[in-house]
Amino acid sequence: MFKSSVTIMHVMGIPIRLHVSFLVVLPFLAVVIGNNIGVISEMAGVEAGLLAAHPFTLGFVLAVLLFTSVALHELAHSVVAMRQGMEIHAITLMLLGGVAEIEEATDERDELWMAFAGPALSLVLGLLLLFVVRPAATGLPADMRLVIYYVGYMNIFLAAFNMIPAFPSDGGRILRSALARRTSYLRATQIATAFGRAFALLFGLFGFLIGNLILVLIAFFIYIGASQEYQANVLRDVFSDFRVRDLMTREVATIKVDMTVQELMDRMMQETHSGYPVLDEGGNLVGCVTLGDIRSLPDIPPDTMRVGEIMSRELISVHPGEDLFSAFKKLSEEDIGRLFVMEGGGLVGIITRSDIMKAYRVRELREEQARIQR
Length: 374
Prior knowledge:
A hairpin with a 2-residue loop joins β9 (338-343) and β10 (346-352). The two termini are 44 Å apart. The protein has two domains: 5-239, no CATH class; 245-362, CBS-domain. The chain is 59% helix and 14% strand. A four-stranded mixed beta sheet has the order 1-2-3-4. It contains 14 helices and ten strands. By secondary structure, the chain is of the alpha/beta class.
């Protein structure tokens, strides 16, 4: 999902990634916290004069611990999701916090527990630090007492903020889960999305009036996130009646691995195709070649190169019985134009973005036919 990310570690098999925006926000946040160390120390009941570390050093430490708390929050979501059998792709730390890339829950009760897990962990962690660890840490250095207070306070804030019913936040997902027990999942998403958009507009207006750019950015991402989530659920609803086999192309034009690039270019011009599956001498799928592969060639005569030298061997496939929305997600996440449909180890078809979009028209025709028959 987040292509400009790097994996820094794995926790329970889940990749923890840093988005490129994290490298921008971390030093910025460290400076902001460092400039406010005096206020934070006063809130923590710690004399600023007793602090040994430089304010910006403390700011950096607190910024790192804040993002660590965000990672733990997202990890709680992920652990509950794994126990419910959902796939976890990664946890990505980025500009405005963190995102756990989790397979969409299909049951509202699963979504309820998964959404609640993050705020619950943050709240418990915050309460422990403020009301158990902090009173017992009176003999520790002032810097440590400040860290304990700040991390505890921010975890409680993290729990409270995420419980606001502004979809797609945790509170918004809990709201959708509750609504889905009384209406359709799509309708519940529509209502929760409306709440999220309204909150984002009010939040953004408030941030604009007080001149707080961070609040405006948060509001913007909530609004965009709510809109994207609703669109994804509309697509899921449209695609729910279809399997890959319903819309895939069964007669697939293929080429041989030993074909020259010049022959491939001639065939592309003749058949107006921009890509082909590549088969070996035994008829097995071994790769895929596209117009982009040809364009990236060095200045070598195309009649001296073979398709096997330029083709991509990374094949992304689906099964004919796989649901259409799953195929659509693979196309979107991998940013590719086609998927190979494999069954029993052999190529049985191909499905493209345009094939999937035909589901809209087929659904409309079915609904129109049903209205006529009534």
